[in-house]
Amino acid sequence: MKRLIYALTKLARQARRLGLKVFTGRSPLKPKRVVLLVVATNKYLRFVEPLLVSADRYFLPGHSYEVLLFTNLDESPECRQLVDRRAGQARGKVHLRHIEHSPWPMMTLLRYRFFTQAAAAILEYDHAFYSDCDMRFVAEVGEEILGEGLTAVRHCGFHDKGRALFTYETRPESRAYIPANEGLHYFAGGFQGGRSAAYVQAAAECSRQIDDDLSRGITAVWHDESHWNAFLCRQPHGVTMLDPGYCMGERMRTPYPSLILALDKDHSQMRTEG
Ligand code: GAL
Ligand code: GAL
Ligand code: MN
Is residue 10's pLDDT more than 90? Predict the structure, then answer.
């Protein structure tokens, strides 16, 4: 079965690349304006350039994309050089947004607050996608990610697991709580997005829920990812669902071809300060 899924997915993708219409019969879209949202403070800044070089090659070819980089190092020479090096490029120009750094997991948890604060800038684009900075595009990610509403990736750790094993938030005190009889899919936090208006709206709602949790001293089990799952569980309609290949652990093996890798890194080393 796994092999069959793999073969069919690969075939569909190859056909799409050759410009053939597959199943959906979707016709090529007018070029869209897309913003890639990236949060990278301190040590994480080093991941950004390789991520963007991979995006230049594989992220929505035929469409334009620009980057909104949220960082505390916006005044640093590294950041300035990054912006300058990319300024002349056709795709992937970088715009900086200053944020303050706080220790892990705050920089992942607060992403929706940053996006809400940058809502006006994000709404200048047709579509918005967030990628963890420690990711790499390794194959073409095309128009299949552009839907009418939100776009969410099924988490690679759960593609073959049942509801009982999903790591949703289980404490009713958290606004990310999902009752045991609800929730059909477990989505990854590492790559997500949608039509800008839909994503900005989802970000605002998740940000409110996260702030509410924080005001009562609660952090959901998988941080922002728990809130993203709770949001999608409450509002599942019109979501473009992507298979786990769009956020695949670097060394994970699933039946799905890998398109975006979540890089293996030394988490304990990356998540400590200094
Ligand atoms: C990490 C996240 C990275 C980056 C960083 C903030 O938790 O995986 O993508 O957002 O926080 O510097
Ligand atoms: C892990 C992943 C975490 C989180 C968790 C959910 O594999 O590294 O970021 O998504 O799964 O259970
Ligand atoms: Mn990551």
Answer: no
